[in-house]
Design brief:
Largest sheet: 7 strands, antiparallel
Number of strands: 11
Helix content: 10-25%
Distance between the termini: 28 Å
Oligomer: single chain
Number of helices: 3
Strand content: 35-45%
Strand order of the largest sheet: 4-5-6-10-9-8-7
Shape: globular
Structural class: alpha+beta
Low-confidence stretches: 1-38, 48-67
Radius of gyration: 17 Å
């Protein structure tokens, strides 16, 4: 419990110290009165006794991105599809050997912070003290099905569904949307999408969070960044 508390305090301090911008943008959105869902409520790799062990498989596909093989920190221009239109973006290639992945991210739209077993990409348009649109990537020394069980409890207020999915460079994985409020047909104001990717003896977990108004913007940007992710663990 002490370990969890220290991790929570450290990680929370880290995310809310990120430098933000108050630019006007179609993707910018104000947080609701109750604030964003807590980013750092995930379990750590030391909590294996709380997560069940089992196996998994998956399948499907999305947007195209450049093949990895770039140097860590290398920047380049790329073209993505956003809301049915082409957009030129500035990407930076990142490699995190501790977590076990490499990926390209839009460094003009997101601020990256690397922490203890965690890489976080937060919208540059968000209020630095109350971020709404972000993606966190971390490694868990657990099975995919074990993480699914954990998220089923975490997303108890949402309609829970596990989808088979295939990422272009990372292969088969599981995807869990947290979008529809449980017992209703209503979309939540704050949407989440989780990807659980087999890696080594455990898995890489990606958790996206964005306002419903930004689903077509940030949701699409996250998806295309994630489609460049390659497991190296």
């Amino acid at each position: 419990m002490k370990k969890k508390l220290l991790l929570l305090v450290f990680a929370t301090t880290m995310i809310f110290s990120l430098a933000g911008c108050n630019k006007t943008s179609q993707e910018e959105s104000a947080a609701p009165a109750n604030g964003p869902i807590v980013l750092f409520s995930e379990p750590t790799s030391g909590e294996s006794s709380e997560i069940a062990a089992s196996e998994t498989t998956a399948s499907e596909i999305v947007v195209v991105a450049e093949e990895s093989g770039r140097a860590d920190g290398e920047r380049f221009e790329a073209t993505i599809m956003l809301e049915g239109m082409e957009e030129t973006v500035q990407y930076e290639h990142v490699k995190n050997e501790d977590i076990g992945f490499e990926m390209d991210y839009d460094y003009e739209s997101f601020t990256r912070t690397t922490g203890d077993n965690s890489d976080i990409f937060v919208s540059a348009y968000d209020d630095a003290e109350n971020p709404m649109n972000y993606m966190r990537i971390w490694y868990m020394d657990e099975t995919v099905d074990g993480m699914i069980e954990w998220f089923e409890s975490e997303f108890e207020n949402y309609e829970f569904e596990v989808q088979d999915y295939t990422l272009e460079n990372a292969g088969v994985c599981k995807r869990i949307p947290a979008e529809v409020i449980k017992g209703t047909n209503n979309m939540a104001d704050e949407l989440q999408m989780v990807y659980i990717i087999p890696a080594g003896k455990g898995c890489i977990v990606v958790r996206e969070h964005y306002a419903i108004e930004a689903a077509e913007g940030f949701g699409s940007r996250f998806k295309q960044m994630l489609n460049t992710l390659k497991v190296i663990k």
